[in-house]
Amino acid sequence: MDKDIVTINGVKCKPNWDVKTYLYIGEDSRGIKKRNSETNGTGQSDVLELIVLNTKENTYYKLPINRDSITDVKSLDEDGSYLATTKVQIAFAHANGDGMESSCENTVDAVSNMLYGIKIDGYIAMNIDAIKVINHLAGGVPVTIEDDFSQSDSSLKMGETVTLTDDQALHYVHDRMNVGDGTNVCRMRRQKEYIDALYPIFKNKLKSDSGFINTFYNDLSDYMVTDMSVGEMGNLANTIIMSEDKGELSIDGTNALDRLGFNAFTVDKTSLGDVAMKLFFKKAE
């Protein structure tokens, strides 16, 4: 029996090897990135988004993963060795590590396992301070304010369309408590609007300036961990530019509070399987 065969929603499937998948991790920590001497549970991943490229069809999809999704997450010892697996919010995968490569690899592992063992071909992790750098490189990003930010940043007034300053961008993309309904689903909607507005700005910069990817890589290096070189990141950016954007898919589920009072997102298994079959697998013959 083919070891690559998996059963999804009752259907035998095999991986689509024309697909390349890259994970973006937005980490909830500040300052210059440094290796933690011990695992202390800080630096959770507030943002998880996959870029899924079909190299045969020259298309790509975006797939956000709710940070509160309950799934199997590995706990690691201080030396990075495996301790146990627990069903918790997937955001904790990054917090179980050194804050650098082992945290990213643990997150890659959790996302891969949640999606039936898909191969993730690269990752980019950035912390909160990267938001201001990205916004600055863009020269500001235009968005329409659809949530109440009065307790977070009173300069962001509901109903107005503004070009975000670097400080405003940090509040708009990161803040959750006391903004809108306070849920991560609400924040994910804002993050999507920000990324959708950022994309054409960066696309034009990449097209018009061959050195922009080097500037991007260097300016963000203090706030970023990645397993890709600047050349690999440039190739990925160019491939995305030359491919058709098929939009964003989503995995359905239900929000609730767990026994400790934290948000928990229970993934709908049918929805998860449908998305996985559309993006990563083909029916086995």
UniProtKB/TrEMBL annotation:
Write the protein's name.
Answer: Cell envelope-related transcriptional attenuator domain
Which ranges does the record mark as transmembrane?
none
InterPro entries, sorted: LytR/CpsA/Psr_CW_biosynth, LytR_CpsA_psr
One Pfam family recorded for the sequence: LytR_cpsA_psr
Q: Source organism's superkingdom?
A: Bacteria
- What is the similarity comment for this entry? Belongs to the LytR/CpsA/Psr (LCP) family.
The Cell envelope-related transcriptional attenuator domain is annotated at 45-199
